From TrEMBL:
<dbReference type="InterPro" id="IPR017938">
    <property type="entry name" value="Riboflavin_synthase-like_b-brl"/>
</dbReference>
<keyword id="KW-0408">Iron</keyword>
<dbReference type="Pfam" id="PF00175">
    <property type="entry name" value="NAD_binding_1"/>
</dbReference>
<keyword id="KW-0479">Metal-binding</keyword>
<dbReference type="GO" id="GO:0016491">
    <property type="term" value="F:oxidoreductase activity"/>
</dbReference>
<dbReference type="InterPro" id="IPR008333">
    <property type="entry name" value="Cbr1-like_FAD-bd_dom"/>
</dbReference>
<dbReference type="GO" id="GO:0051537">
    <property type="term" value="F:2 iron, 2 sulfur cluster binding"/>
</dbReference>
<protein>
    <submittedName>
        <fullName>Oxidoreductase</fullName>
    </submittedName>
</protein>
<dbReference type="InterPro" id="IPR050415">
    <property type="entry name" value="MRET"/>
</dbReference>
<dbReference type="InterPro" id="IPR017927">
    <property type="entry name" value="FAD-bd_FR_type"/>
</dbReference>
<dbReference type="InterPro" id="IPR039261">
    <property type="entry name" value="FNR_nucleotide-bd"/>
</dbReference>
<feature type="domain" description="FAD-binding FR-type">
    <location>
        <begin position="1"/>
        <end position="98"/>
    </location>
</feature>
<keyword id="KW-0001">2Fe-2S</keyword>
<dbReference type="InterPro" id="IPR001433">
    <property type="entry name" value="OxRdtase_FAD/NAD-bd"/>
</dbReference>
<dbReference type="Pfam" id="PF00970">
    <property type="entry name" value="FAD_binding_6"/>
</dbReference>
<keyword id="KW-0411">Iron-sulfur</keyword>
Length: 232
């Protein structure tokens, strides 16, 4: 069982849950866990959530965005309190991961809550000299996860925000969906052969992956993880 030790509100509808997980075996940035909730009558529901932190002993962080008609996310974002316990299984996954000993430049492209596993990669970078670039696509400034931390990222990590609905006056880019010009301006050129990780809603991930291949990026270097509009 995992015990909640801290809760941080990220946006009005999303929060980060910090758990103490005795016997946690460690994890790679990009992996996820399965969270299972069981009601008093025995009914259970299970959902997968990306791990938000780097490997840190028995500490596991999940950032959960509430889904209006979801079965699990409303409980995690509105009901769960410090001291509560839940069933948590993992880590799960071995493909959509960044291994800190890797040396190619890294391009992270996140849509909405797809930033979560990418943030784990940034947090795991540590003293590595691997250069990172993050393109973070979100509807408006009010949906920004990890705002304060992203403002203070270390040297070697460049962050660009792509607003799709409402952009702040100083955005330097009109609101709109991700396009090839964004990848040229803020990403790595194909000749640098970066490791690319794309995570977000299905439509966003497919669009970004198509643009990357059209620009000449090696499809074998593009790893994607997507989630649908329902569930939670």
């Amino acid at each position: 069982m995992a015990t909640v030790t801290e809760i941080r509100q990220e946006t009005p509808t999303a929060r980060t849950l910090v758990f103490d997980v005795p016997g946690w075996p460690g994890h790679l940035p990009g992996q996820h866990v399965d969270v299972k909730l069981t009601a008093d009558d025995g009914y259970s529901a299970q959902r997968s959530y990306s791990i938000a932190n780097g490997d840190d002993g028995e500490r596991v962080e999940l950032t959960v965005q509430q889904v209006g008609d979801g079965e699990v996310s409303p409980y995690l974002t509105e009901v769960l309190e410090v001291g509560d316990q839940i069933e948590l299984r993992g880590p799960v996954g071995g493909w959509f991961v960044w291994r800190p000993h890797s040396s190619p430049p890294v391009l992270l492209i996140g849509g909405g809550s797809g930033i979560v596993p990418l943030m784990a990669m940034i947090r795991s970078r540590g003293k590595s000299d691997t250069p990172f670039r993050l393109l973070y696509s979100l509807r408006d400034p009010g949906q920004l996860f990890y705002a304060r931390e992203l403002e203070k990222v270390t040297a070697g990590v460049e962050v660009a925000y792509l607003y799709t609905r409402t952009a702040p006056p100083d955005a330097g880019r009109a609101a709109g969906r991700i396009r090839a010009a964004d990848l040229v301006a803020y990403g790595w050129p194909p000749e640098t052969s970066p490791d690319v990780f794309v995570c977000g809603p299905t439509g966003f991930v497919e669009a970004a992956a198509d643009l990357l291949t059209e620009l000449g990026h090696d499809p074998a270097k593009i790893k994607t993880e997507r989630f649908g509009p329902t569930g939670g």
